[in-house]
Amino acid sequence: MCVAFSGCVTSVDPNYVRLLEPTGDAPPSANTLGAGDRIAIRVYGEEGLGGEFVISPSGTINFPLTGKLQVDGMTCSGVEDELTRALREGYLRRPSVSCSVLEFNSKKIYVFGEVKRPGTFRFDDNMTVVQAVTLAGGFSERASENKTTIVRRLDGQKVRVRVPIDAIIEGEVENLQLVPGDILYVPESIY
After folding, report:
1. pTM for the full predicted model
2. Are the beta carbons of 130 and 145 closer than 8 angstroms?
3. Cβ neighbours of residue 159 closer than 8 Å, sequence gap 6 or more
4. Which end of the chain has less neighbouring CB within 10 Å, N or C?
């Protein structure tokens, strides 16, 4: 696909355009819980209940009295509501439950290669390619910006797509929104 803009013609990877298309699925939220996240739960007035929990790979926590509770995809508010309901059913009259996230580990993006601070970064709602590169300190002097690639899992398979950085910066194409698990790689320029 070619995109014309101000007399310039830029070739854009058709797979990049495919990633820009809406899927109909709700975009992932940075505030929902997932495997590996660490949360703290307190039940006011009940010292023996609560504590810190790491969400299992199956998306559950094992809470005293109520047993396994599926929390994958919930927000802390949802966990509070679910635990309040479960504790009210035969355990406590008026449970007051609070949940807070201590550490999000389930939703990360990765930026490697020729950026100033490569690494793993927490996914935020509506995060874009440009934001991810900015979090990584921007491109290094040796970066080949227009050969940047994104690796994303689509329909169970890994797909590698070239990201048209110059076209994004010039406003020729949209800045792609990332999803948790995306990997950006910026190769070194060959002089």
Report:
1. 0.76
2. no
3. 15, 151, 152, 153
4. C
Backbone angles phi, psi at 52, to 5 degrees: -100, 140
Statement: 2-20+107-186 belongs to CATH 3.30.230.10: no
Residue ranges per structural domain of the chain = 2-20+107-186, 38-103
Instruction: Give yes or no for a contact between 108 and 39, defined as CB atoms under 8 angstroms apart.
Output: no
Task: Return the DSSP state at 36.
Answer: T
Phi and psi based region of residue 59 (left: phi greater than 0; alpha: psi -120 to 50; beta: remaining)? left
Q: What is the pLDDT of residues 38-59, one digit of tens each?
A: 999 999 989 888 999 999 999 9
Q: How close are the terminal C-alpha atoms of the chain, in Å?
A: 27
- CA-CA distance, 148 to 170, in Å (whole number)? 16
Asked if 83 contacts 62 with a C-beta cutoff of 8 angstroms, the reply is no
CATH T-level fold of 38-103: wza like fold (3.30.1950)
Which string of DSSP letters, residue by residue, matches 118-186?
-EEEE--TT-BHHHHHHHTTSB-TTB-GGG-EEEEEETTEEEEEE--HHHHHTTSS--PBP-TT-EEEE
Identify the segments of the chain with pLDDT beneath 50. 1-9
Q: Find the helix or strand (DSSP H, E) in which 70 lies.
A: strand 67-70
What pLDDT, on the 0 to 100 scale, is given for residue 95?
Answer: 94
